[in-house]
Amino acid sequence: MSTPSPACSQALAVFEKKHPEYLEDLCKLVRIPSVSFEGFPPEQVVSSAQATAELLKARGFENVQILTLPGVHPYVYGDYLHAPGKPTVLLYAHHDVQPAGDESAWASPPFVPTMRDGRLFGRGTADDKAGIIVHTSALDAYLTAGEQPPVNLKVLIEGEEEIGSGNLGDFIERHLDLLKADIMVLTDTGNFDVGVPSITTSLRGLCTLEVEVTSLKQSVHSGSWGGPLPDAGLALTKLLASLTDDHGRIAIAGIYDKVRPLSDVEQQSLNALPFTIDQFRKQAGVIDGVPLLPVSGDNPWTMIWRQPSISVNAVEVSNRRDARNIINGTAWARVGVRLVPDMNADEVVEALTQHLVTHAPFGVQVKVTELGAKGPWFTSPDHPAFDAALKSLEAGYGRAPVLIGCGGSIGFVGPLSEKLGGVPALLVGVEDPYTNAHSENESLCVSDFYSCIRSQIHLFDKLASLSK
To answer: What are the catalytic residues?
Structure first.
């Protein structure tokens, strides 16, 4: 491993003294309930943007701006451009968060950051307010040490990532000159396990549809009419069941035709992952006695990262609170399909729609509505920036990193990289299998949070040696 520059060493020394301050920076942001979903107060997202802008300024970023589009939650931008001739690095994170969910299921209030057993609990601790602090702390460590960061820095903190980044394309078009960079570093993913640093090189895409089944003009008494009338709830159940075979494999015609096979290098990387099936079951919360669905070989991560999947996100047939003895006239469900390279999102939407319409039982009417479709993202880690990132992570965590995929979607990564001319995108973060992102009791491992900041300090140093 190469020796860090004197400036990097000085910044690391500052970090060791100031890291409690950086943790408090995170706690301040977590206390703001910046839920970007419709129905939640948008002024809290505005307050979060303002607090983020103040933090960027306090930690040394210049030209800090809160950027908006009409009707869109605010973005925050800042830069530090004092390394002529060196690469420009665009740093990304987001300041909006998911709703708290069932607050009674939280062991501590969701917007009161709380330490327990080396983890900081609270909504947004890991996803993704920690990502903001990684960026601000790395710059602050250099500046406090009296050193200039060895690369040019731009930072973009988004305010609507948790609702799909639907306006990011328009935002990029409007501010493309402001965002131009040579490399992107996005702290919105996670590590394979606690203490196992990781770079994400693939993201699954996502197609989401609503399907509504109608058999009657209105629901009717099940005693008076039961027998000859088709129940919409039963019809929907049969229709949803037709989406997979008895082994859980997707039964939509042609769904696997364009799935990119694993290369030898990718297969070797998957085989080298440090995990056991028992560990995987525990992390996922699989109930004892419930088997895993068949996967390629004995590695469930192959299916999560490089195979499509289908899920029924929600079903409505009457409701549990007001259950009545009726034959249901209508029933509704939301269905999502995760996509992998080289699947085409529009083609999958068409195939899923065709399947739902043609497999309708009992002759019921089926209405399908597309809610959104985003393709997958994949990058080959052969750019020198990846080597710099791998070495930086090893220096920050004290162990060799791994290359991983992500079963989820971050829809803006591909479009943003393309708009910037195909620049390499380094996806790192502080989530882990115990983070519970989007669920109750979200948390991050504080020691990994600190290791991620150390890695970022090293990364600025190592990226400085690359050509623009």
So the answer is: 96, 161
